[in-house]
Amino acid sequence: MKKTKLLLIDDEKPLLQNLKQILEFEDFEVVTAGNGIEGLTQYEKESPDLVICDIMMPEMDGYGFIRNLRTKGYTSTPFIFLTAKSDYDDLREGMNFGADDYLVKPVKSSQLLEAINTRLQRKREINKKLEIQLSQIENGFRLITDKEFFATVYDIIGYLHLLKSKHHLLDEESLQEYFGYMEKSSNRLLSLLRKVKNWHEQEKNLVLDSDDKSNSTSVKEVLERIANGTAKNYNREKDLVSNIDADINLHVNAGFIETLFNELLDNAFKFSQKGNPVSIGTSIKDSTYSIVIADCGKSNNYDSLINFKPLNKNAKIPQNDPGLGLGLAIVDLLVKSINGELKFEKNSPYGIIVTVNIPVPFDDEPPMKNNAA
């Protein structure tokens, strides 16, 4: 069985070796470093399950280490500060940087082991909940996929049966009309297949407990590119009202963000008429990054959107676009995977307002004051 790997960082070599021996005796694999700079190298090389770090160290202290760690996107690894400093402000500063626990030297081995096991157990519980949530989402995804596929295929089969039994009674104009219906249904089926393909391509980005955060994407850059491209595709560049000012970097690949907002912006243009504005804006407030997309069109899909329940087997699917439900289900899944929120509201007097709220990542928050000496 693979041992749990700990990264222990402290500039006091006797203490470092003593703690290493204690933890190895408890059947942990222990990797050590003498300061924050060495710690970063060891972290990226070893991918530990938990970090124990002193605060006051040369070259890079504990605060500098955890700030660098979080800035690089390593946010899911439990972190315990081990320090001689016991001032409340120091404790609060460590917690603000993302530490999970704070132990004051000299620390008893029993106290340290209890803290380690508590944090590891907490991490396992969180991962278990995420696994259950993802399983539920995947099951719901299959339900709505089946429903939409069958609805579209039945349309095509219905037209084929009608043509087969009534073709001799139909004039050329009627025949062409039914051929047009079949072509439209076939295109809808193709759209569904593409959406499912997008889902499978994005599924690999939804790894639950991964610290592989080498990708960093500017949301603003992706939004600007997609908004301009979508407006051009609909020949509605003049209808686009863009106020994409605020920006954050998400530790996902660009394709993840593109899939999410391609669907929302495409819907905004698809379900509104040329000459009516489609606006997109961004803002940051209270550690939340908000993207708001609004259209002013008239559509029969408004009630379906306002009452949209993602991945619900009883969800009402818009009759003129069964792919809409699947597309929004994928969007909802992607938003949930980054701990975000998806909301639909009615615009006044017509249209839909879609809001995506995303927690601001640690490295995009205002810098904290460092009191470490």
TrEMBL record:
Residues 113-140 form a coiled coil. GO terms for molecular function: phosphorelay sensor kinase activity. InterPro entries: CheY-like_superfamily (IPR011006), HATPase_C_sf (IPR036890), HATPase_dom (IPR003594), His_kinase_dom (IPR005467), Sig_transdc_resp-reg_receiver (IPR001789). It holds the Pfam family Response_reg. Transmembrane segments: none annotated. The keyword Heme does not apply. Residues 5-120 form the Response regulatory domain. Keywords: Coiled coil, Phosphoprotein. PROSITE patterns: HIS_KIN, RESPONSE_REGULATORY. Residues 144-362 form the Histidine kinase domain. The keyword Hydrolase does not apply. PANTHER family: HYBRID SIGNAL TRANSDUCTION HISTIDINE KINASE C, TWO-COMPONENT HISTIDINE KINASE. This is Transcriptional activator protein CopR. It comes from mine drainage metagenome. The gene is copR_6.
